[in-house]
Amino acid sequence: MSRIEIIGGEQLKGELKIQGSKNAALPIIAATILNKGITILKNCPKILDVYHMVNILEELGCIITWEQNTLMVNSKKTSISCLPEDSVSKMRSSVLFLGAILGRFHEVTIAYPGGCSIGKRPINYHLDAIKRMNVEQEFLGENEDIIHCYTDKITGNDIFFERSTVGATQNVILTAVLSEGITKIYNAAKEPEVEELCKYLIRAGAKIYGEGTSYIEVEGVKELHDVEFTLSPDRIVAGTYMAAVAATQGDVVFHHAPSQHLEATIDVLRKVGCFIEVKGDVIKVGNHARPKPINIITEPYPAFPTDMQSQLMSILCLAEGKSIIVENIFESRFQNIGELTNMGAQVHIDESGKIAQITGVNSMHGAQLYAHDLRGGAALVISALAAEGSSVIQCTDYIERGYEDISRDLRLLGAKIKYHCG
Ligand code: EPZ
User: Fold this and answer.
1) CATH number of the domain encompassing residue 115
2) Catalytic annotation present for 116
3) Residue 320: pLDDT above 70?
4) 36, 134, 289, 406: least buried by Cβ within 10 Å?
């Protein structure tokens, strides 16, 4: 089992470039099925989740080549509309192939994507919306956990989401791009990654309006064409490293950072006491005192993101007072509590499981730690960097799902951190 060893107490200092966005890359990789040709995707992060999605493309018959961080996909010869069951259960984001394959072949067979440690993660909004687009659905297999969708023609329709949902918004867009008629999406997710998927599709010839707002309109077109696209930097990776600077009371300059997508994170880090200066895609972060306590609620974009919640908790465990975090997006995203308690933190979760009360302590000590999910694992790295003494974090392949090389990046900033392959 892979692990990361950290000797805490170093203040992070230096400069770092931010990698490409995982959550922009994954839906766009699925969307490459739609253009029946060439996609050149630049600034693509080399992370486990991307490799997994690319493997699925190859299983579907696409030709893949890499040149450093440029991914080239030729989807001309794709002919299979059935997703391998183990592929989907391994990673939720493969559910985005549902809309892409359906959009191209008018048929798709996909296993129900598994939940994960942060929540059950159902796909009812995806299926209910796509059904409204003249798509038949049947559930196959002895557990009825294989979804078969088929249609002779995808027709545009009005789609109303009762809550903001990133993946379902993206799947409807993927289904609608080559459909007949107009699809109007009300209460669409406004996350930057939805906007970026639309920008990629528009670059490939799709007709989409309102991307980045809660109302998106897709006018179906006959076909898409070859496209070259450069991914934005990853706002959660940037936020994670900024949180590490806050927790270790360091000073770091981040380059190639998606400043315009970090407003809520920057606001929260300023409230805990950081000095933050933004100039274009350069963000300077410094913290020279013990963090201040704050109360925060996670909400859809542009509010404070759930994907930064665990990282903020790592900071607040060291704050000079009591803080409250309300996790409004996922039902079990406080997986780190046990690990943080082992380090001397004082965190209490209320009976609803949505509210964490944190009493900051002066210092935490290193411990044997276990990552339970992607962002929780990255948050444990932050806690270990700020703790006294050494820590070992196991199950770090969770972290490799979203961070190209967290040990390399933090070592560049002076951290005493070492990765051991399992
Ligand atoms: C995306 O997941 C991100 N993943 C998540 O990032 C992120 O936390 C999430 O959006 C919220 O911002 C990718 O972009 C690959 P949702 P997604 O549909 O699309 C419920 C990370 O760490 N829901 O907006 O799955 C769902 O259970 C990951 O990079 C239904 O009930 O999120 C959740 O509670 C973690 N039924 C809430 O809605 C549905 O049909 C929001 O989910 C769909 C969702």
Assistant:
1) 3.65.10.10
2) yes
3) yes
4) 289
